[in-house]
Amino acid sequence: MSQTSDTAARRPTRVRVPHLARWKAEGRRWAMLTAYDATTAGVLEEAGIPVLLVGDSAANVVYGYSSSLPVTLEEMLPLVAAVARGTQRPLVVADLPFGSYEASDAQAVTAAAALMKAGAHAVKLEGGVRARDRVAAIVAAGIPVMGHVGFTPQAEHAIGGYRVAGRDDAAAERTVADAVAVADAGAFAVVLEMVSAPVASRIREVLAVPTVGIGSGPDCDAQVLVWQDMAGLNDDSRLSFVKRYADMRGVLRGAAAAFAAEVEDGSFPDAAHSFDA
Predict the structure, then answer these.
(1) Where 3-methyl-2-oxobutanoate is bound, by residue (predicted)?
(2) Per the annotation, where are the binding residues?
């Protein structure tokens, strides 16, 4: 066997859109986390996370904006490239940021193509019935699309803030219609954000494609969280649906404080961390 073929044989199989369809048919649930850099993406790959989202939440956790609205396509591209370069197996999905797809189908396809050129394997966009033409246009261009309905953060000001979707009959029907619209337009999966659990369960049964929950109860095919929320790096406790699996903020703070203390008292670097002449 040649060195090239041997390397190819050892390379992990990349998760693709058809895998997710098969997992739904098999009843297999899966996890998705956000990632914005090569190092973190690599760790999440080692943990077995099959799908990574380069989310527009980078606006908050990477760039320090107060919402997801200011982040631009140009700011997203290097993050997508880093995550793609840092992994071999996960499916890398990239968010289309606010302002990059609303004006026209042509604008949406151009922005989606830029994310794919940066290394993404699929794109995600927000909106239900209102976004179905955009979804269809991007899919027609040969680019896989993940939909996003329920609470859509890019429309926060139009919605009137953080609101759970589907709590009354009319809202439930609108949410179901939104999910069906993007799936019918060709989306390979649909994120359900802050959708009431009964409505999310109903959508899962209605759609042939996987549903990805975030604050939408247990009856989704997959679940997604921002990794900094999941790992306890953020100290924002507003989101009641976030479960923190570690205290990474405390760990990092403690490590930095220990480093500073050793530098100040002269105990670092010691002989073990220095070079001989």
Answers:
(1) 56-57, 95, 124
(2) 56-57, 95, 124, 126
